[in-house]
Each structure stands twice: as structure tokens, then as C-alpha cells.
Write a structure and sequence with these properties.
The protein is an alpha/beta fold. It has 2 domains: 6-204 and 382-412, Vaccinia Virus protein VP39 (Rossmann fold, 3-Layer(aba) Sandwich); 220-367, no CATH class. Helix content is 24%, strand content 16%. It has 12 helices and 15 strands. A hairpin with a 6-residue loop joins strand 14 and strand 15 (411-412). The protein is globular. The relative contact order is 0.14.
């Protein structure tokens, strides 16, 4: 039984929006169908109704919904898939227009769709139309892949006609402290304030303070997020059988970028440095003597976002590219690139190493110990589809009268 005023999270997934709300001191109710995402949410202590968003009735929500969040499944639209959502886009626009007028033509339109998931992007309008009769919700936040922006603009026209202030556009998660250049189409709407994007806190290059206010920090790198950076020798020295029993750690523990004392006192906690067992281990590509060759080979680590010819490859000293998973071609691998000449004639290039769920989650700004449920494939699918909690917190804070400071993410009263 639903009671009180709610923040409703459609397509709640494993809890990206929910974790951000918990940091802000708010609990939401998530609607989610995937069994493993529901188990992850339960382990994280998040309220969830396991249901098909397209089938759930709207009447229990009318008169009690303060905010609505929606991140429809992106597989039909994503560049990582077949992008049949683009083919179906006219049908989705028609569904939104019909639902906004109180006409449910979904069954007919669904039959014509090339990808049945395409029409899920119209589902938020079904809820919004029902809630509008009660003057709800007070605010809305929606997120999808960039190709969905024209659909968000259609939503915006309708919502403005209902008295909302609305902003739509593309935001880069790296501009808000996420160690990933993940671009997303965003819709923000409010009945009580001017809708506008949050001010970016980070930039590709650090910006100095000026007369117009504080500058922005440099984008957060993967090394910073995973606790691998800020050493005197950022390029790891390769030892045969590197790691325990075979030479020094390639990424020394405790090497996280120093944060301010204020951040340590705050509610928002960035991902903890991963334990040594979760970090890449350097190993030779062929059998050979275990003799340590420290100093003779030097390599730098990068993340390869998939195994296609046009894969994105980023140094650990940069943010990751957009993380997406779902089939073998989209695996993320740590790969080593030579950063110096060998002197002993031996090829000790470390073999590629698959990223762990804990590492991928941290690059999405989930805590390192977030309780991902399921096997590896199920965990990676959840992670790739999730909203980065840090980006979500920036988007939601103004609606909840909370403030995230630009540098330490302390919640200000």
C-alpha cells in the first residue's frame, strides 16, 4: 500500500537515481521489471515494486506524487545496439501525443514498432497525464541517450502547456565530476521554479577562479576514481608476475587523489578505492623466467570500451568513455600500452584484463561495495544502463532545496 507523498522512479533499474536521492536524504519508490535489478535494489535498501511500467495502473499514484523520474530503457536507441528506436521514432511521437490527450493507442502503435522497447519512451506521458489531473507532480527529471532529445522536446511542449517550466538538452556527466564522458539527453521540469541545468563543476581543463566566481576542477580521471593515481611514478613498472609474490603493485594502494577535509565530513562519499584484489595484475604474455625485470619495461594502462575496430581507448589518467554492456562486443578491458623502450629483449606486455563490476560501478559513481546482484553479465547490464548517481544528485538537488558544493559535494542546509 502506497502512503504519503512519493518520488516515483519509473524504470528504476539498480538504483542510480535512488542512491542519489538517499544521499540527499530522500527515499523514492522504484518501478522495475528486471528481477536482478530488483534484487540489487533490495540489497541496497531501496523501495521497489516489481512490475511492468507499461502495465502498472496510475490511479494509486494520483494525489500523492511529488516528483517523477524516468529513464526508459535505452537499448532501442543506443549506439551500442541496432538503434531501431530511430526507425520507430514517429510511432513513439504519436504515442506521446495521443497519451497527452488521454487516448491510449499503444497497442496499435506497438504492433507497428520494429523494436517493442521503443514505445517505452512514451510511458512517462501516461503517468504524467494521469497525475496532471491532481496538479502533480511538482517536478520531473528524465534521462536517455542523446538521440532521444527530439522526444524530450515534444514532452517539453506539452508540459509547458500544462504550466511547467521546462529545460531540455545534452549534458556530459564528466562536467559534474563523473569519471566518464557519458552524454545524455535530459529533461527537467518544475511547477514552482525555473527549470535549468545544474552549473557544471568540472571541465576538461581546470579553470582558475575569476571575478565571475570559482573556476571548475579538471575532469575526474579513472585513476582518481579507482584510487590508482597521484603517485610519483604514475606509469607502473612491470615485473614478471607483478602483484603479490611477483613484485610491487602496479597501482599502489592508498594512492587516491587527496580530498579536502570538508569532503570527508560530508554526506556524499565518493567511491572508495578498490581493494588490491580488484585491480589489474600485470603478467607476461608468454611463459618465461619469473625473474623480476623492474625498471626495464614500463607500461601505462588504458580502458578499451569494446572489442570493435573503432573502440574507445582512454588512458587511466582520463575519464572513461561511455560504459555500455550487453553483448561480448561491448566488453571493457584494461589494456597496457608501452610507455618506454625495453632493454632486455623480452616481451612482457601485460595481457588485457576484463574490468570488474566493482570498477565499472565506481566509474559510474556507485560505491565500491554496492551490492550488485546476479552473475557477471547481469551485473554489467545493470551498471551500463544505470544513471550515474553523482550526475543524478546534481539534477535532483534543486528540486529538493538541497545544494551540492562544486568541489566536495557536501550537502549544505
Amino acid at each position: 500500500m502506497l502512503t504519503g507523498r512519493l518520488v516515483l522512479d519509473l524504470f528504476a533499474g539498480p538504483g542510480g537515481w535512488s542512491h542519489a536521492l538517499s544521499v540527499l536524504g530522500i527515499r523514492d519508490v522504484g518501478l522495475e521489471w528486471d528481477a536482478w535489478a530488483c534484487r540489487t535494489r533490495a540489497a541496497a535498501g531501496q523501495l521497489t515494486i516489481r512490475t511492468d511500467v507499461a502495465m502498472y495502473p496510475t490511479w494509486p499514484l494520483v494525489g500523492r506524487t511529488a516528483g517523477l523520474i524516468a529513464s526508459p530503457p535505452c537499448q532501442a536507441w543506443s549506439m551500442a545496439g541496432k538503434r531501431l528506436g530511430l526507425v520507430d521514432q514517429p510511432l513513439v511521437h504519436q504515442a506521446v501525443a495521443d497519451l497527452a490527450d488521454g487516448r491510449d493507442t499503444r497497442a496499435k502503435l506497438l504492433a507497428a514498432c520494429k523494436d517493442p522497447r521503443s514505445l517505452l519512451a512514451a510511458e512517462p506521458m501516461r503517468y504524467l497525464h494521469a497525475l496532471h489531473s491532481a496538479g502533480e507532480p511538482e517536478w520531473i527529471a528524465m534521462e536517455e541517450v542523446p538521440d532521444v532529445l527530439p522526444l524530450w522536446r515534444q514532452y517539453a511542449v506539452i508540459l509547458r502547456g500544462w504550466g511547467f517550466s521546462v529545460w531540455t538538452g545534452i549534458l556530459n556527466a564528466a562536467d559534474y565530476g563523473v569519471p566518464q564522458t557519458r552524454k545524455r539527453a535530459i529533461l527537467l521540469a518544475s511547477r514552482t521554479r525555473t527549470a535549468e541545468p545544474p552549473s557544471p563543476t568540472h571541465a576538461q581543463a581546470a579553470e582558475p577562479e575569476s571575478l565571475f566566481g570559482p573556476g571548475r576542477e579538471k575532469w575526474v580521471s579513472m585513476a582518481d576514481a579507482l584510487g590508482w593515481g597521484a603517485t610519483d611514478r604514475p606509469v607502473p613498472t612491470v615485473c614478471a608476475g607483478g602483484g603479490p609474490g611477483g613484485g610491487p603493485e602496479p597501482f599502489p594502494s592508498g594512492a587516491r587523489k587527496t580530498l579536502t577535509d570538508a569532503r570527508d565530513r560530508g554526506t556524499w562519499k565518493p567511491p572508495s578505492p578498490l581493494p588490491a584484489s580488484h585491480r589489474p595484475r600485470l603478467r607476461p604474455t608468454r611463459a618465461g623466467s619469473p625473474t623480476c625485470t623492474c625498471g626495464t619495461h614500463r607500461w601505462s594502462w588504458s580502458l578499451r570500451s569494446n572489442n570493435q575496430a573503432n573502440a574507445t581507448i582512454r588512458s587511466v589518467q582520463e575519464p572513461a568513455g561511455t560504459l555500455f554492456f550487453g553483448h561480448r562486443a561491448n566488453e571493457c578491458m584494461w589494456v597496457a600500452e608501452p610507455a618506454g623502450a625495453a632493454t632486455d629483449g623480452e616481451d612482457l606486455a601485460p595481457a588485457p584484463i576484463r574490468i570488474t563490476a566493482a570498477e565499472a560501478g565506481a566509474l559510474q559513481t556507485f560505491p565500491a561495495d554496492y551490492p550488485w546482484a546476479g552473475n557477471k553479465g547481469q551485473q554489467f547490464s545493470q551498471i551500463g544502463n544505470a544513471v550515474p548517481p553523482l550526475l543524478a544528485a546534481h539534477l535532483l538537488a534543486p528540486h529538493l532545496d538541497k545544494t551540492l558544493t562544486r568541489s566536495d559535494f557536501i550537502l549544505a542546509a
